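subagent[fold] <- orchestrator: predict structure for attached chain, return tokens only, no commentary.
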Amino acid sequence: MQRSRSDARCRLRAAVIAVAVFAASAVATGTPVGATTTVRLSSVAVESTMTALAAPILGLATTPTGKGYWRVGADGGVLTAGDAAFYGSAAGMPHDTIVAIAATRTGHGYWLTDRRGAVFSFGDAPFHGSMGGHPLNLPIVGMAATPNGSGYWLVASDGGIFSFNAPFYGSTGAMRLNKPITGMAAVPNGRGYWLVASDGGIFSFNAPFYGSTGSIRLNQPITGMAAAPNGNGYTMVAADGGLFRFGSNSPFYGSAVGACPGAPAVAVAMSPGAKGYWIAFADARTYAFSPTSAAPQCNPSNSSKTGLMATDLFARLNAERAARNLAPLSWDPTLANYASAWSANMATEGFRHSAIGNLLGPYNYVGENIAAGTGGTLVGALHYAWMQSAGHRANILSPGFSRVGVGVVCSANGSIWLTEDFGHASSEGPAHPSSGTPPVDPIVRPDSGSLHC
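subagent[fold] -> orchestrator:
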């Protein structure tokens, strides 16, 4: 038995249809008379690929312009990108594992710190002291500089704060924490700071509390945080590249969930000179997320049975498009994560569509196909059923879509649950879907294959 829904007549009731397509448009308006003028920010754009490293990347800091960044490895090596200049590293100095980097206000220098609290200054970064040589209850895990560049804070995994030419606003050093502290961020006015624990719990010291994930079960632990440049919020990143944003932050431009897994995400960073943010991975990959950046590009993982089935469906989609001279769909990690989460939801809550319209914003055109089958149902058979359904086929063959994510979940009883989420990124410009339903023939991949739960 297999199921796939296809009611192309209903485009507004996403909860009860199997094919859902949404589009959004933006209207530009002129500046009203008497309005103030603000400095135009650039969009985050600089990215970095995986690099052969002697030690993993553990920290990230941005330049004030928003046109570059530094990454620091556990061995003290510093990697630059964009307009970030190299001012030295701790690679040849005695130290423990380097855990964080913080940039000066000018962008002409930076500090590094290791697990024991030793601080290393480079460029115009003044040295104000360190915990090197002093006993610590627990290791240092993060660092933040005062916005005026006059000092810095170190934070230990128990939330103990060590201030150097910077005001002390409090700590969790005397508290019993559910999970260890993994990072900190300073309020942009320098009058407070936030600490974040691995479960996403937030501790505010002379800083507003905007929310946390302390009561939410996370797929992966939180590894770092960054303050919004305007001070009205903060963003946390998990090891899988997922983002959690609280307060009046800049718009959500996507996450790095599923972005070619192989190394954990270790840091998120923002710059006052740019729109958007960066997510850095331990293997030096660093992705830009902004109005003009594209989502990370990669392919589905083949490391599991469900990954192999997602890969098969991805290949079938593009084979059908190639036969009709349509551009191939690229694999989108954000859509793939969303699709996988929804397939898992259907496996426990029942067969129905997601609120796919919630993805509008980073995407200006989205659609969804879902299907389910009992034990032994071949994934290729579900693709064939989709191609014979006008609504599902319209999504698969729409020229308005440029990317896709596929989520496959197997239930304990062998049932299979599929979600295909299609999108056109807003950063790619207007989407141009065609009207009408493409003909069913030819179905170039009618075979059922051999893959099943």
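orchestrator: received. Logging for downstream: The two ends are 14 Å apart (CA to CA). DSSP finds four helices and 26 strands in the chain.
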